UniProtKB/TrEMBL annotation, chain A:
The organism's place on the tree of life at top rank: Bacteria
Regions that span the bilayer: none
Protein name per Swiss-Prot or TrEMBL: Uncharacterized conserved protein, circularly permuted ATPgrasp superfamily
Coiled-coil stretches noted in the UniProt entry, renumbered to this chain: none
InterPro entries: ATP-dep_Glu-Cys_Ligase-2 (IPR051680), CP_ATPgrasp_2 (IPR025841), UCP005522 (IPR016450)
One Pfam short name: CP_ATPgrasp_2
Location of the Circularly permuted ATP-grasp type domain: 73-449
TrEMBL record, chain B:
Keywords, alphabetical: Hydrolase, Protease
One term of GO molecular function: peptidase activity
Domain Transglutaminase-like: 150-213
InterPro entries: Bac_transglu_N, Papain-like_cys_pep_sf, Transglutaminase-like
Name of the protein this chain belongs to: Transglutaminase-like enzyme, putative cysteine protease
Gene3D superfamilies xrefs: 3.10.620.30
GO biological process terms on file: proteolysis
Organism: Pelagibacterium luteolum
Amino acid sequence: MSEKKYFDEMLNADGSVREPYRILGEWLEGQPKQALKQLSQDAETIFRRLGITFAVYGSNESTERLIPFDVIPRVISAHEWRRLEKGIEQRVKALNMFLWDLYHNQDIIRAGRIPEKLIIQNEAFCPQMMGLNPPKGIYSHIIGVDIVRTGPDDFYVLEDNLRTPSGVSYMLEDREAMMHLVPDLFHKLKVASVETYPENLRRTMQEMAPESCTGHPNLVVLTPGIYNSAYFEHSFLADQMGASLCEGQDLFVENGKVYMRTTLGPQRVDVIYRRIDDDYIDPLTFKPDSMLGVPGLFDAYRAGNVTLINAPGTGIADDKAVYTYVPEIIEFYLGEKPILKNVPTYNCTSDSERAYVLDNLEHLVVKEVHGSGGYGMLVGPTSTKKQRAEFAEKIKARPDNYIVQPTLALSTCPTFTGKGISGRHVDLRPYVLVGDKIRITPGGLTRVALKQGSLVVNSSQGGGTKDTWVLEE
Amino acid sequence: MRIAIRHEFRFACDENTAHAVQHVLMTPIDTPNQKVVEWTIKMPGIEHAARFTDAFGNKALLVSQTRPEEDLFISVTGVVETSDTHGVVGRIAGDSNFALFKRFTPQTRPNGTLVNRLKAQAKAGASSVDLLHWLMNRLHEARDGSQDDGEDTPEIVAEDHAHVFVAAARGIDIPARFVTGYVLDGDTGPARLHAWAEAWDEKLGWIGFDPSANLCPTEAYVRIAVGLDADTTQPVRLVPNLPREADDVIRVTQAMMSQQQQAGSQSQSGA
């Protein structure tokens, strides 16, 4: 498989440097041999000091480790970003309208534009949300849209993460590390700032305070606790926003309202950024055996006494089977053509499409409808015959449980490999905040598949991160 | 008919019960065939309860107690005026999300044999109302033929029948829901909290079916709450899950004038 198949974000086919990378390219040229190695070591020291770790489920090694970081930033031009931004904004607007509709009149189902069964029987559809009016009609306030690039103007949305997307702390820490490591480069290039994210998150939460809250809204971050793989991020964000970090046991519901236990007595809570999955937030309404949540929380939300960010039930809009309808959803609610493309997706419940899929598994990517984090997934081109046979059986047994997509030719970015610079495949997760307005942090988290040729960028599968530089004009 | 209801029950608290919350679905709403004249729920903490409409259109209460000193005693009294509409409940304001009631739940998994028989009849031209009546009769017959008849507790039988009915109706794409309510004391023993089903018909709206009694609800029925299944319509859901103390006291009688006045003099209306 020749490297030419993939779009190189830095180099043109003739070896010349693409304009957005010009200054970075010159800088890289000018670095002495050992400089990148030194920078990588310095970066590691910085991250160790910051204490950024993440847990890998199912790994036998120590439960916490550093997420690998590549010191060569990814560069996106102002022009490229503008288009991405527009496309993302369009998508999150439409998806929030879709959520409102599904939990109210269901016009899109009545209009026959999306199958009723797909919604009503979907695990991610939350019947308890029916008829509930979240503040300002917004369900998903914190979104991480996964985007891949295959050419100069070809961007595809892989998935819209509308539940509790993680990784934003890496975006912020990557930037902080880079500002320590290469201050001179920030003088040469005008890079759009990402540091406003925590402030924007705080603003978004304040804007979503329930109508009944008249004073200054009290904000908290609700975490499942220190054993969660993203605990670092929960505490980091709470800290950055000046909000309290709570576990379920720190909160209680009394007289229909939510309170936090403090040394000064109970303190009323108005807005909760919860990083606990829907099923676990409230044993009174959802899983009765959950110890992580707050009994009565959902009813207090329903009664309009507290806001949950994101709302429960947002998963129906990023469900992998619903994903194929997003272009339809954008047209239905906004009357616009989608700006960003969806990855073409095969539907295994259709006999002809399933037959094609089973014949071509070595070229395709198979994902579990409710899976995430790169678990339960088959990447055809790098799979073994045995793995493909296993997935073929799985698909035959439960065709509705899988979606299948062509293997995308993910773009590559220059990456330091320890020996030299070489192209590695990347994706991008921009972070979106939806409050009174839509705030998209320029850039986002670039995940990079560090193994040569690998297309799997998930940190749980050996991927690393890079700082993402959106250039200002 | 005017029906007077009194229902008292108790959950045991112990010294470890620091904080208790309850989701209470025990407040009936007006429908085309029932009008709530008076309704009172008494329990600790109710004066500060959050009152809201749940996802299924029920009036719900969120009640809490901090360090309850004694058992959690709940008393419900009320008077409801009902009329006989041959089970037809019709359309209720704000209750238009009938597609929601096609959703299968862990308690309402369709029985393949029943669904296939219903489908066959539908193919042969049976109307949906015919199908639902057939289904109700079929469940009733099955119950009479079962060996452990007489051993079953009435609540379990009613709940199970309602679940099977609801699941089968959903299996042929008819929206159906689980209903809790009271039935007038009769010859069949003491009154109880009962369970039945409602199914959606494009022409008539919601129609009640009581598969355990094999009839469509009459004026002897008072409807309390609806939902997807027994889980979503539990009269009192609570955390911590306190044990029920003794048997419920339930009286469902035809209301006399004096009883109505008595009920009307109570404070703290739940309606």
